[in-house]
């Protein structure tokens, strides 16, 4: 599957970016993210001492990241830091010291995406656009903020839709509790060994009878929840990160052209 590996470091970075400057989470995460190897096997008491906070404060951070126990959090952090080279990749594989090799990789990806444009299922994209228009609320549970989703959210708001964007699982679950059968959710699933189980989120969304559009990895067990699989836009062929952004851009332009 193309895309950014969504792991605990990714989520810690997102929470840090979203936390107000000077807040407790901002303070702890700033220290941890600058010295991750020092924290990867630390106990909750050691983290509290290293960040000049308390066990309770660290536990609240662990919960904000979506973990039900500190042991789960420590396992995820230790795994991601120890095997960082496996997670510090996007579409381009392992890091290259030779910049020319990196340029060739990027060029190949771009050429591949251009070649595959004719494979795009426009009918399915039109169906998604119409679902957005028919909904009262459209929520995006996605791995990263990007200009295409921001533009789509803006255009949905201009046509009277409630919209929200969530990157952390606890926030997704809180938002899901507010939705209804008139809601549509676009979800990028998190499927690596050390990330959080999304089944509780999907159980809530199905109970609320939301329409679910899911971008999942190949043979994902989350596919069973989908009303529409975004991967079907490319007839189940793996989507690179470039392909994903292209599809998001197309959805925005199609919505803008049809309904604004």
What does the model show?
- The structure is a single chain.
- The chain is an alpha/beta fold.
- It folds into 3 domains: 8-87, Arc Repressor Mutant, subunit A (Orthogonal Bundle), CATH 1.10.10; 91-118; 120-259, Rossmann fold (3-Layer(aba) Sandwich).
- Helices cover 53% and strands 9% of the residues.
- It contains 13 helices and 5 strands.
- The chain has helices at residues 8-18, 24-34, 36-39, 44-50, 55-64, 70-82, 84-87, 99-115, 122-134, 147-158, 169-176, 199-207, 241-259; strands at 137-141, 162-166, 183-188, 211-215, 228-229.
- A 5-stranded parallel beta sheet has the order 2-1-3-4-5, sandwiched between helices.
- Helix 1 crosses helix 2 (24-34) and helix 9 crosses helix 13.
- The chain is globular, with a radius of gyration of 19 Å.
Give a short synopsis of this structure.
The chain is α/β, with parallel strands linked by helices and 260 residues long. The chain has helices spanning 8-18, 24-34, 36-39, 44-50, 55-64, 70-82, 84-87, 99-115, 122-134, 147-158, 169-176, 199-207, 241-259, and strands at residues 137-141, 162-166, 183-188, 211-215, 228-229. Helix 10 (147-158) links the parallel strand 1 and strand 2 (162-166).
């Amino acid at each position: 599957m193309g895309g950014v590996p969504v792991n605990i470091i990714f989520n810690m970075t997102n929470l840090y970016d979203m936390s107000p400057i000077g807040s407790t989470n901002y303070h702890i995460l700033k220290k941890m993210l600058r010295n991750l190897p020092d924290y990867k096997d630390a106990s909750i008491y050691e983290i509290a001492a290293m960040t000049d906070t308390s066990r309770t404060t660290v536990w609240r951070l662990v919960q904000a990241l979506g973990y039900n126990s500190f042991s789960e959090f420590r396992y995820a952090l230790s795994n991601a830091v120890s095997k960082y080279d496996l997670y510090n990749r996007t579409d381009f594989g392992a890091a290259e010291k030779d910049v020319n090799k990196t340029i060739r990789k990027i060029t190949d990806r771009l050429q591949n995406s251009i070649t595959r444009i004719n494979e795009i299922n426009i009918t399915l994209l039109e169906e998604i656009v119409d679902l957005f228009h028919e909904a009262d609320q459209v929520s995006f549970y996605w791995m990263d903020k990007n200009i295409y989703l921001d533009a789509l959210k803006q255009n949905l708001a201009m046509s009277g839709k409630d919209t929200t964007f969530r990157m952390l699982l606890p926030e997704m679950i809180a938002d899901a509790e507010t939705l209804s059968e008139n809601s549509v959710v676009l979800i990028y699933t998190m499927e690596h060994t050390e990330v959080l189980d999304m089944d509780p989120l999907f159980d809530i969304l199905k109970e609320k009878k939301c329409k679910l559009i899911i971008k999942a990895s190949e043979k994902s067990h989350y596919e069973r929840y989908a009303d529409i699989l975004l991967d079907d836009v490319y007839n189940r062929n793996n989507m690179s990160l470039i392909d994903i952004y292209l599809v998001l851009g197309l959805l925005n332009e199609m919505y803008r052209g049809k309904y604004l």
